[in-house]
Amino acid sequence: MISTWPLLFSLVLGYGVRIVHTYPHDRSSFTQGLEYHDGLLYEGTGLKGQSKLRVEKLETGEVVRQVDVPAEYFGEGITVFGKRIFQLTWQTQVGFVYSRATFQALRRFHYSGEGWGLANDGKQVYMSDGTAQIRCLDPVSLRELRRITVHDGSKAIVMLNELECVGGEIYANVWQTNRIVRFRPSDGAVTGWIDASGLLTAEDQHEPVDLLNGIAYDAAGKRLFVTGKLWPKLFEVQLVGR
Predict the structure, then answer these.
(1) Lower CB count within 10 Å: N or C terminus of the chain?
(2) Which domains are delineated in the chain?
């Protein structure tokens, strides 16, 4: 049986981060999902009545296209899959499918429990729900195919939030922390921990800044980006071994 008690020690690799470049980020964005594609940044935001799906220019933060999520929904994670964008909502068990080109809503899909984070590896969609489990979804029907439990040894890692597929692994924000966990999608085994503390300066940390949430990866340029809920900045970072 896998324990869900807090992790006391780990035999996997630990990393810190070094800032490579700093970009502007909309301080009003309660970031729930983040992805980078073809030079643009796709972002899903939360809070009822304020949730959005948008695409913006990385270098300037300029919004290229945006659509509001219906006010009764609390927007959550997003992922771009081919010509479509998928977006979760938190506790309403409803997800949205949009046209990537126009942001037109194409249909809705349903799931049990809560919706937190989404990512895909080009073949399969991965979904987090705030537990240690990751749901693997069919990208056409969005039906659940299987689940994996993320674990570091015998310790299950709970509160998995925003997801990103990076080089054959999945990275996940751990909610209420500034840590990112790396794990294998095949079996959920943790391969590393990233401590992303200290990215914001003291001047940036005034209210209502929230915790780290948002991971995007530029596969072609091998660039990793992170930000947080209501953060005024987005960072390109490089991992530093510890």
Answers:
(1) N
(2) 13-241 (2.130.10.10)
